[in-house]
Design goal:
The complex is a heterodimer of chains A (about 110) and B (about 120). In chain A, strands 2, 4, 5, 6, 9, 10 and 11 form a seven-stranded mixed sheet that branches. Chain A has a four-stranded antiparallel sheet with strand order 1-3-8-7, with no helix packed on it. Chain A has about 110 residues and is an all-beta fold. Chain B has about 120 residues and is mainly beta. Chain B is built from no helices and eleven strands. Chain B is globular, with a radius of gyration of 14 Å. The N and C termini of chain B lie far apart (about 40 Å). The chains are: A mainly beta (about 110), B mainly beta (about 120). Chains A and B meet through β4, β5 and β10 of A and β5 and β10 of B.
Chain lengths: ~110, ~120
C-alpha cells in the first residue's frame, strides 16, 4: 500500500494567515493526489484534484501543487469557514489511501 | 445535481454482516466508479473499495475477504456487505462518486450513515 503522510498533524492560525499543509507519498504517485476538507459533523468535500486542479465551486484561495511524492495545499488567506480538517488522498493505486489529516484550528 | 443516500441498519451484532445500500439520484449511475469509505468516530478516513457500473470491483486488502460489493443499475443503487463484523467496524460509512476526470477524486458524497457493532 502507498502510505500518505501529512504534516503538520495540526496547526493554529489566524484569519488572514497563509497556511500550507504538506503531504508526502511513500512512492511516486504522479499527479494522482486529491485534497479534501472536512468540517466537524460534516461530510468530506473535494477541494483539489490532480494535485493542482481546483474543484468547481471551491474558492480560489485554495491551491495545490506538487507531483511524484511531495504535494502541498495552500490557503492564501485563511477565512473563518476554513477551520476544518484537511486530508490528502492518492488515487494512483488501489487501495486508495488517505493521509492522517491536518486539523486547522483558530489561534 | 447528483445526490447519494446511504441506507441500512444502524446497529449490527458482532459476527454478523453489515449491509448498506447507496441510492443515486439526479444523474446516471452508469460509466462511473462508485466507492465506499468509512470513518471511525474521531479518526481519519479509510477506503473500503470501489465498484464500476459493469460490476468490476477493487477492495482494500485489509478488508478484502470480508467485503462484497454489487451494483444494480436499474435501481440506481450500489451496495456494500461486510461480514464477520467486530467493534472495530463501528464507524460512519460513506458512499461516494468517483470523478472520471483528472485523478479520480471523490466529488459527490452521501451524508454518511453511522453503523455501530454491538450486541
Amino acid at each position: 500500500d502507498i502510505q500518505m503522510t501529512q504534516s503538520p498533524s495540526s496547526l493554529s492560525a489566524s484569519v488572514g494567515d497563509r497556511v500550507t499543509i504538506t503531504c508526502r507519498a511513500s512512492q511516486s504517485i504522479s499527479y494522482y493526489l486529491n485534497w479534501y476538507q472536512q468540517k466537524p459533523g460534516e461530510i468530506p468535500n473535494l477541494l483539489i484534484y490532480a494535485a493542482s486542479s481546483l474543484q468547481s465551486g471551491v474558492p480560489s484561495r485554495f491551491s495545490g501543487s506538487g507531483s511524484e511524492t511531495d504535494f502541498t495545499l495552500t490557503i492564501s488567506s485563511l477565512q473563518p469557514e476554513d477551520f476544518a480538517t484537511y486530508y490528502c488522498q492518492q488515487s494512483y493505486n488501489t487501495p486508495w489511501t488517505f493521509g492522517q489529516g491536518t486539523k486547522v484550528e483558530i489561534k | 445535481q447528483v445526490q447519494l443516500q446511504e441506507s441500512g441498519p444502524g446497529l449490527v451484532k458482532p459476527s454478523e454482516t453489515l449491509s448498506l445500500t447507496c441510492t443515486v439520484s439526479g444523474d446516471s449511475i452508469s460509466n462511473y466508479y462508485w466507492t465506499w469509505i468509512r470513518q471511525p468516530a474521531g479518526k481519519g478516513l479509510e477506503w473500503i473499495g470501489r465498484i464500476y457500473t459493469t460490476g468490476s470491483t477493487n477492495r482494500n486488502p485489509s478488508l478484502k475477504s470480508r467485503v462484497t460489493m454489487s451494483v444494480d443499475t436499474s435501481k440506481r443503487q450500489f451496495s456494500l456487505k461486510l461480514s464477520s463484523v467486530t467493534a472495530a467496524d463501528t464507524a460512519v460509512y460513506y458512499c461516494a462518486r468517483v470523478s472520471m476526470t483528472g485523478s479520480f477524486g471523490m466529488d459527490v458524497w452521501g451524508q454518511g450513515t453511522t453503523v455501530t457493532v454491538s450486541s
